[in-house]
């Protein structure tokens, strides 16, 4: 169950990071509220997952999901550039996450 909580925490990290971008420096109320709620949920689920997962594994997977998800959200929803270098960097992050998961 810890891995489910960790995955959900990672998804909420994508939500809060995307909403933070849309908040325009916390000047827009709705994206700011979404940022704060998703951040609290993400941290809470991460804390629950860390009850039984090692710190390094949990934190790396959480930030990895957030990084890859934020990259994808930026490309798909915000019109950010999709370049070969950025894709390779994202694949390296995925490789690190998979390697960390397999080492558990």
Automatic annotation (TrEMBL):
Q: How does it sit in the membrane?
A: Multi-pass membrane protein
Give the UniProt keywords, A-Z. Answer: Cell membrane, Membrane, Transmembrane, Transmembrane helix, Transport
Q: Chief location of this protein?
A: membrane
Q: Where are the transmembrane segments?
A: 33-50, 57-78, 84-102
Q: Name one GO biological process term.
A: xenobiotic detoxification by transmembrane export across the plasma membrane
Subcellular localization(s) per the UniProt record = Cell membrane
One cellular-component annotation, GO: plasma membrane
Q: Which InterPro entries match?
A: EmrE-like (IPR037185), Small_drug/metabolite_transptr (IPR000390), Small_multidrug_res (IPR045324)
GO molecular-function terms, A-Z: transmembrane transporter activity
Q: What Pfam families does its record include?
A: Multi_Drug_Res
What family does the entry list?
Belongs to the drug/metabolite transporter (DMT) superfamily. Small multidrug resistance (SMR) (TC 2.A.7.1) family. Gdx/SugE subfamily.
Output this protein's name: Guanidinium exporter
